[in-house]
Specification:
Blueprint (H helix, E strand, L loop, with lengths): L3 H4 L7 H4 L24 E5 L9 H5 L10 H14 L2 E8 L4 E12 L2 H4 L1 E10 L8 H15 L4 E4 L6 H6 L23
Parallel strand pairs: 4-5
Antiparallel strand pairs: 1-2, 2-3, 3-4
Amino acid sequence: MASKEEQEIYLYDPNLLLQLDFFRSPAKFNPPITCVAPGEPWLKVRPLKSGDYRRGFLQSLSQLTSIGEISEVQFLNRFAEMRAKGDYYVTVIEDLRKNKIIGSATLVVERKFIHSCGDRAHLEDVVVDDTYRGKQLGKLIVVTVTQLAQHLGCYKMSLECKDKLIPFYRSIGYFDEPGNSNSMTLRFDKQSNL
């Protein structure tokens, strides 16, 4: 009989991560690390798994923003929806010693008619547990999903970030497009927009 961990499913094929070429990235790591060799034997970079609710995935996201009350059933339903669509690539960093998710980033692929029916990538929900900072893990998770977007054939990747994070993203190859660096939002979860 298979263990619970063996019964878990990945959000996307983990073999995709083995095909990424970190030498193509403008980001520099010192010491050198990749998603396959993240710098410590107890760290693992991999796709989100169906069992990550119990590994603290949502608690990790709560360091980024409010997540609300989400049951394991709700988590599994959303996981199944994202997996079925095939356009979501949530990538996590796990501390194998603690069986705990300590970082993640989401790549969302948007299917377009422009650019010859090209695919555009969006970087979302980047977070690293504050107790693990200083190990280049933020850079590692962003470069991993950026390389994944390129490997999947996306023509560009964009993100929104707080002003204080602009130097970080610039240091790993992102740039402001002159005349096109605005981000505007209309929120539907707040009364103030109505």
